[in-house]
Amino acid sequence: MQARRRLAVGALVTALFGQLLAGTAMAAPSAKTSSPGRIAWTPCEPPSDQGASGTFECATLKVPVNWKRPHGATVDLALARHLATDPERRIGSLLINPGGPGGSGVNFAFSAPDSFSPELLARFDIVGFDPRGVGRSNPVKCDEDLLNAQWQAMDPDSASSFAALRDANRALGESCRDLTGPLVDHVDTSSVVRDMDAIRAGLGEKRISYYGVSYGTLIGQQYAERYPNRIRAMTIDSNMDHSLGTWAYQKTNTIAVEESYGQFADWCARTPSCALHGRDARALFDSLYKRAEAGELVLPGDPPQKATPLDLQGIVVQYMYDPSDWFTFAQTLKDIDAADPASARSGKKHGEPTEFAYLPVLCQDYDLNVRSYATLARHERELARLAPVTRLSFIGWMDVTGCQNWPTKVTNPQDRLRVDGTPKILVTNSRYDVATPYSWGSNAARQIGREAAFLTYDGAGHGTYWLSPCARDAIDTYLLTLKTPRKGTHCPAVWPTGPTAQRQSPTGGLINPLPELLGTGTYR
């Protein structure tokens, strides 16, 4: 994520709440477009900046924009697959999704040789797709000036500024429709689930294996509800909970951030090589937050820029995804603490169409309406009592405030999962995850019921497959053999012992792709 390297406010906003344009062009021959039916694959190469090795094929699949009108307008879904390295022992296709909403499944597939175990690479064709409205699949585009204006309105402090936020949200959402077309009204996850089943059929497989992480778990959960008999195996890693109302959504997110930052602070206290070792990391954050509230906090950069409390909270979230970043995070907080407020300047913003699928998807999947500013302010006060250090969850707050008065309908609103008749589904979650709280994973497993096997990783971070050798082995074993871990299985925490030049996970030297895949303008 670029904002990890340069902490200017404009870069942070773009990385956390916009969609970078870089990396969306596929370095491949033109793939054939299939009509409904079998997918026509052609050889292709990943973008040069991914540096992946392996044998890849690409294709597009035509699906209806509106599944209620199957013979109406269509959209082409972009797909990529890494072919099984041991075709004689090939099990089938493993469909994957990295979440977001807005993460590129095509890029996820291109990362497969570095990100998945040799065993999975040998036995499966790893198939990724860009969901409708994302990346190469007719990306949702919105006006960047209006995106920046919305960002400025995200922390209302009065009824009038709450009204201004609602106006900014509507203007942004309407720009997305103007720049994207009718697809923007049909990017909900229930439509993506229909797309995924069309991909399964196009692959010629009666039952599909699936690995979804982060927001990709919502796709898996709803696919299991709709098509229980079309699943061979499904791992959903770092889970969404689609049953939560607005307050519960905020509350669980906020508690997760407070607990995760506490794990970082405790790790720093016992790790001599942490840049904040010997200091109270909780007290430091409190000090930085109060300086941000007073308009006296600066993010180092060229030029240095003033930071709001939301900027600071966003930085916490981005460094909590993977504990391998904690050495850098500690140094970043130290640098922010030492920055001179007198050096700050405002960053220039450029207005043009920019890819931004996050809110268009989320605000169709979740009804997060807040009746009034008084209700929002009460939520903020109660969240600060629950999380006296970090105050609130950047992600949860932005989700709720960002969806107020969004112009598209909530076509896939919250509901309790009703899964019946699937094979065992492996559900995994970290105990300390700022993006998808542990309570979400355990609650999703309870809702799935007897079809779920729940695995807990007792450490911190997002995406258990790349954080824990134990979790990765359990996921691999299940996907390969359908054998689930025993009920109540916990995997021990793995804490960083030294900074690394590359984002290398403890799971056999694999590279964790999520911070880069989800750092292109998405939260989860």
Account of the protein in words:
By secondary structure, the protein is an alpha/beta fold. It has one domain (1-524): Alpha/Beta hydrolase fold, catalytic domain (Rossmann fold, 3-Layer(aba) Sandwich). The chain is built from 19 helices and 15 strands. It has helices at 2-5, 9-17, 105-110, 112-115, 118-123, 144-152, 159-180, 189-202, 216-226, 246-270, 281-293, 309-320, 326-338, 358-365, 373-386, 394-402, 438-448, 469-481, 514-517; strands spanning 33-34, 42-44, 56-64, 74-82, 92-97, 124-129, 141-143, 208-213, 231-237, 298-299, 305-306, 353-355, 425-432, 452-460, 490-491. Strands 1, 2, 3, 4, 5, 6, 8, 9, 13, 14 and 15 form an eleven-stranded mixed β-sheet that branches. Strand 13, helix 17 and strand 14 form a beta-alpha-beta unit. Helix 2 (9-17) packs across helix 12 (309-320), helix 8 (189-202) crosses helix 9 and helix 10 packs antiparallel against helix 16 (394-402). It is globular and about 65 Å long. Mean pLDDT is 90; it is low at 1-35.
The residue fraction in helices comes out at 25-40%
Beta strand %: 5-15%
Shape: globular
Structural class, by secondary structure, is: alpha/beta
Specify the number of helices.
Answer: 19
User: Would you tell me which CATH topology applies?
Assistant: Rossmann fold
Tally of discrete structural domains: 1
CATH homologous superfamily caption? Alpha/Beta hydrolase fold, catalytic domain
Q: On the 0-100 scale, what is the average pLDDT? A: 90
Largest sheet features: 11 strands, mixed
Q: Please tally the β strands and state the result.
A: 15
Low-confidence stretches: 1-35
CATH class: Alpha Beta
Q: Rg to the nearest angstrom?
A: 22 Å
CATH architecture: 3-Layer(aba) Sandwich
**Termini separation (Å)?**
13 Å
